[in-house]
Amino acid sequence: MSDTIKSVLRMIPYGFYAITSRNGDEVNAMVANWLTQVSFEPRLVALGLAKSAHSHSIISAGQVFGVMLFHQDDKDAIMPFTKGMAKNPDKMKAAKYTEAPETGVPVLEGASAYLEVRVKEIIDVGGDHDIVIGEVVGAGINKELTPTEVLSLPALGWSYAG
User: Fold this and answer.
1) pTM of the predicted model, to two decimals?
2) Is the pLDDT of residue 1 over 60?
3) Among 7, 87, 110, 160, which is disulfide-ready with 83 (CB 3.0 to 4.6 Å)?
């Protein structure tokens, strides 16, 4: 029996971003795709964040995160962050990044653009992911790109939905 709900959810063209976090001296980067803007004033975004992710505890404690956008041609720059801390505990030691001016979150080398976000609320909706609502407080552009050039799951041939 086919799962029509899963099939339709996989039709949504999710982006593919690196989410960086900071709590004091502890920093991390992970990949995510469940991200969207949810308000113009103030500028708010919503992030679906796995409760089991190492970044969840860092974001909860530090109350900030970054969203790194990559050009499709720069997909190799995001790949080191596709494995969690359990499988790649030294990923941040090898990572090249600068600190964002407003929040101090890592801005990863190779990112075309980034957002700096302050957490407004973390909502437990009863699933395996929480919804993190954050206010965008800063941004930067390192390489101009259009929405169709932003790295996405469809561009990688990957799926994380359903």
Assistant:
1) 0.95
2) no
3) 87
